[in-house]
Every structure is written in structure tokens, then in C-alpha cells.
Amino acid sequence: MTRQIIVADDHPLFREALKAAVGRLEPGTGFVEADSVAALLAAVEAEPDADLLLLDLNMPGAQGFNALAHVRGTRPGLPVAIVSADDDPQTIASALRYGAQGFIPKSTEAGQIGRAVEAVLAGEIYTPPGYHPPRGSGATDEDLEIARRIAELTPQQFRVLGMLCSGLLNKQIAYDLDVSEATVKAHVTAILRKLGVATRTQAVLAAGRLATDRASVKPPPEDSD
């Protein structure tokens, strides 16, 4: 049976490079590409039998490890390998603790990418050659609890959370999603409840705990209505 791999990265050239690296190893592999968080969520939903997700850690709207946490919650049987230019030991350790089965630096040469994918598909945990887990590394228990709560969001709620993290107001989110402001408000209310917070700002700061660069997390404007 042909393997099906979801490739989620906002850079088309790198998606092509990943597909070529994996395709050389196993010709006939099917690929589904996603260039945004919305496309990623749609692909995960549309491909229930996918064998692997190759996920760019810094895809716009993904907010660091949030997309990983969400996919691991909604599709626990789908192996995820993170592909990232941020390949310091802390980032790798955090990715594994949030549930990634592999971590492939973007600097990896094509042949090694193929072998890394094969290792993950075989059920192994892949880390780059020379990787040593740092002391006191990875996500804290509090971070993992937030990841668990993010995993409980519906795909649409997760998209709305990403838009909140981007600083959009309800009316802007409604326009982008082609829904009413009332629908957005209902989503925001559900997000706050599931995350166990009281305000949009607290929701963004909670999601920001899973960002690779927490200093970049900015509280959103509060809707006046």
C-alpha cells in the first residue's frame, strides 16, 4: 500500500526538497502539502490514514509547539516529525516531550532526511546525530498541561486561538473565517473555558508558553464589545 505523508511547511521550495528526499527512498509515496495552519488542519482531517506528518515548527499561525500539541491530541495515532531550522538541544528536547517522534533539522542533507523518515515510520524516535538531551530540558509540567488543554480545542477553535495570538480582533477574525462576530465570540468563550483562563490576553499568554521564542509573544488588544 502506498504511503501517505503530510508535508506542512510554508516554504514551497523546502516542501519540494522534503518530498524529493523521501521520494528517492520510496518511490510512489503520496504527499499532501500544507502551507498554513488552516491547510494543515484540513489535511489532517481529510487524510485519516496518513502515515506521517512532517511539521515545520515555525509555520505562521502555529505558535511554536501549539500545532504539534493540537495534532497529537486530535490524531494521537499519527506520527509527527518536526522539521525546523531551530535545532538547539532545548528545542529538540521540548519537541520530543510534546509528543514528536522525530526532529529533523532543516540543515540535514537529503539522504539523511530519508533515513530519518524511515526511522520514524518504523516506530523509532529520531534525533539528529550528536544530539544529547540537555539537563532540565524540555517542557515543564505546567507547559504540558497547557498542551493537553490546547489538544482539546476543535480545529476551528485552534484556528481562532492562532488568530488571537496574531493580535486580530473579533471582527477581523470573523472576516478572515467568513463567519459572524457572534460565532467568533462563541469560539473565544469556548477557548477561554477550555484553557481555564478569563481573558483573551491570558489565553494568548498561555499559548505563548509553547512558543519557541516566548519573548516574541505579545498580548492582544482586548475587544471592547
Description of the structure:
With 225 residues, the chain is α/β, with parallel strands linked by helices. It has two domains: 4-121, Response regulator (Rossmann fold); 153-216, Winged helix-like DNA-binding domain superfamily/Winged helix DNA-binding domain (Arc Repressor Mutant, subunit A), CATH 1.10.10. The protein contains ten helices and five strands, in the order E-H-E-H-E-H-E-H-E-H-H-H-H-H-H. A five-stranded parallel β-sheet has the order 2-1-3-4-5, sandwiched between helices. Helix 1 packs across helix 5 (110-121), helix 7 (155-165) crosses helix 9 (181-195) and helix 9 (181-195) crosses helix 10. The longest helix has 15 residues, at 181-195. It is globular, with a radius of gyration of 17 Å. It starts with a strand and ends in a 17-residue tail after the last helix. The model has no long low-confidence stretch (mean pLDDT 88).
